[in-house]
C-alpha cells in the first residue's frame, strides 16, 4: 500500500520582501546560426521598512529572468533612513547614465509624487511622503538606479552630528 504524500511538501517561509517587475524586454543576440532570443527583466525588491534594491535578470524564459532579477536585487540592497513622517531627511539627487532624479521631503499626507520606476523604488523602500522629479532619460533601469543612488546618499541628523563630532542639539540650531 502506497503512503499518501499530500502534506509532505515543505512550504516556503513567509518573508516581508516584496518584488515588483518594472519592465520585461525581449532581446536578441545575433549569432552565426541566426538570432538567439532571450528576456531581460528589471525587478525592484524591497521590504517597505527602509531597504530596497534594483536587480536585472536575463534568461531564455520570462520566469527565469524574473527569478534572476530578484536574486540580483537582493544582492544590491541599500539602507534608506526614514523620518518619523515616513519621508526622507533632506533633498537628494542621483544620477545614472542619462537619467537624473531629484527628491525632496514632503509633509505628512502628501503621498509619493513620482512616476514610473522612481515611484516603485520609493514605495518599496517604505517612503510614504516625498516629491520626486525625473530629469533627462526616461529609461526605467537608469531611473531606478538613479533613485537608489539618491536614497543611498541620504544621512540622518545623528549621523551628520557624529561625523562632525558635535552634539546633536547643535545641528538643529
Structure described in brief:
Helices cover 29% and strands 35% of the residues. By secondary structure, it is an alpha+beta fold. It has two domains: 18-77, Double Stranded RNA Binding Domain (2-Layer Sandwich), CATH 3.30.160; 80-160, Ribosomal Protein S5, domain 2 (2-Layer Sandwich), CATH 3.30.230.10.
What report would you give on this structure?
There is one protein chain. This protein has two domains: 18-77, Double Stranded RNA Binding Domain, CATH 3.30.160; 80-160, 2-Layer Sandwich (Ribosomal Protein S5, domain 2), CATH 3.30.230.10. 29% of the residues lie in helices and 35% in strands. The protein has five helices and eight strands, in the order βββαββββαβααα. It has helices at 62-75, 116-125, 140-152, 157-164, 168-172, and strands spanning 18-31, 34-46, 51-59, 77-79, 92-96, 99-105, 112-113, 130-136. A four-stranded antiparallel sheet has the order 1-2-3-4. Strands 5-6-8-7 form a four-stranded mixed sheet. Helix 2 (116-125) packs parallel to helix 3 (140-152). The protein is elongated.
Amino acid at each position: 500500500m502506497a503512503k499518501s504524500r499530500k502534506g509532505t511538501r515543505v512550504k516556503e517561509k513567509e518573508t516581508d520582501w516584496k518584488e515588483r517587475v518594472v519592465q520585461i524586454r525581449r532581446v536578441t543576440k545575433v549569432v552565426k546560426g541566426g538570432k538567439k532570443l532571450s528576456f531581460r527583466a528589471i525587478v525592484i525588491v524591497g521590504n517597505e521598512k527602509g531597504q530596497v534594491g534594483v536587480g536585472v535578470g536575463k534568461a531564455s524564459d520570462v520566469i527565469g529572468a524574473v527569478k534572476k532579477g530578484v536574486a540580483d536585487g537582493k544582492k544590491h540592497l541599500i539602507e534608506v533612513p526614514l523620518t518619523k513622517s515616513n519621508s526622507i531627511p533632506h533633498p537628494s539627487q542621483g544620477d545614472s547614465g542619462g537619467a537624473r532624479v531629484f527628491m525632496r521631503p514632503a509633509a505628512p499626507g502628501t503621498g509619493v509624487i513620482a512616476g514610473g520606476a522612481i515611484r516603485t523604488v520609493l514605495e518599496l523602500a517604505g517612503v510614504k511622503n516625498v516629491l520626486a522629479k525625473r530629469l533627462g532619460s526616461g529609461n526605467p533601469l537608469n531611473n531606478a538606479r538613479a533613485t537608489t543612488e539618491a536614497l543611498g546618499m541620504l544621512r540622518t541628523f545623528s549621523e551628520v552630528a557624529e561625523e562632525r563630532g558635535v552634539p546633536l542639539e547643535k545641528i538643529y540650531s
